[in-house]
Amino acid sequence: MGKKNKKQNKNQVEEPEVEVAQEEAVEQEAVEQEAEAQVEAEEQEVEETVEPTLEEQIELLKGEIEKEKKEYLFLMADFDNYRKRTLQEKQDLIKNGGQKVLEGILPVVDDIERAIDAIAQGGDLDSLKEGVDLIHNKLLSYLKSNNVEPIESTGELFDTDFHEAVTTFPAPSEDQKGKVIDTVLKGYTLNDKVLRHAKVVVGQ
Q1: Euclidean distance between CA atoms 158 and 193, whole angstroms
Q2: Beta carbons of 142 and 104 less than 8 angstroms apart
Q3: Averaged pLDDT of the chain
Q4: Which end of the chain is less congested by CB atoms within 10 angstroms, N or C?
Q5: How far apart are CA 137 and CA 133, in angstroms?
Q6: CATH code of the domain covering residue 179
Q7: How far lies 118's CA from each of 114, 121, 122, 133, in Å?
Q8: Per-residue pLDDT at 77 exceeds 90
């Protein structure tokens, strides 16, 4: 009887030890599985950060080159359209640039034609002279409004930038030597640039 109780007590002690060992084994297995999963995750991460192969790099470069080529062709086409457009605008400007100037001259032409008709009808000479003077002043005023100015010549020092000597003449006095004695054809400037040189006689 005593031996039997002793045996039962021994079994009761061994059973908890077995359960503890089993729990430890389960925990150890779980730790190992977690460690394996972590290792696999790290290996996958390493694989994802691996440099692409040479073939893959070549394909990437080909794609980039093709993209750059398309962008270049697009820019070239855009620039060509811009060049054609500006060239056309320049041609139109050259072709029609004088339109405004010519339109301003037409009223002067109308006045001259009326003066010619008046002369043909035998109009009063003084009235005709006054009409011609008005037309002349009107034309000069129009030229001035377009920045066309006459070049001062007679009595001025001869200046090759503005004057063209057609002949020389003995100066009537010492102070007139090297100066313009007479203006054969009046010169003009446009925006301070010589439009036509004045043809002059220079004292010598």
Answers
A1: 17
A2: yes
A3: 84
A4: N
A5: 6
A6: 2.30.22.10
A7: 6, 5, 6, 14
A8: yes
Strand partners, 121: none
SS3 for 111? helix
Question: Contact 156/187 with Cβ under 8 angstroms?
Answer: no
User: In angstroms, rounded to a whole number, what is the distance separating the alpha carbons of residues 132 and 115?
Assistant: 7
Residue 156 lies in a domain: yes
Q: Looking at the 3D structure of the chain, how many domains does it have? A: 1
10 lies in some domain: no
Helices 99-120 and 125-145, packing angle to 10 deg? 180
Pairing of strands 188-190, 180-185: unpaired
Structural domain boundaries, residue 154: 149-204
Condensed to tens digits (0 to 9), the pLDDT of residues 11-57 reads 454 555 656 666 777 677 777 788 777 877 776 665 555 577 888 88
Strands 188-190 and 193-196 turn out to be antiparallel
Q: Is there a domain that residue 179 lies in?
A: yes
DSSP code for 122: T
Token pair in block for residue 23: 């729990």
How is residue 34 written in tokens?
A: 């977690």
In this predicted structure, what is the pLDDT of residue 18?
58
| pLDDT of 203 strictly over 60 | yes
Identify whether 117 is part of a domain. Answer: no
Which region among 39-48, 76-85, 117-126, 168-177 has the lowest average model confidence (pLDDT)?
39-48
Query: Do the Cβ atoms of 183 and 199 come closer than 8 Å?
Result: yes
Q: What phi and psi, each to the nearest 5 degrees, are found at residue 178?
A: 80, 5
Whole-number Å distance between alpha carbons of 133 and 184: 20
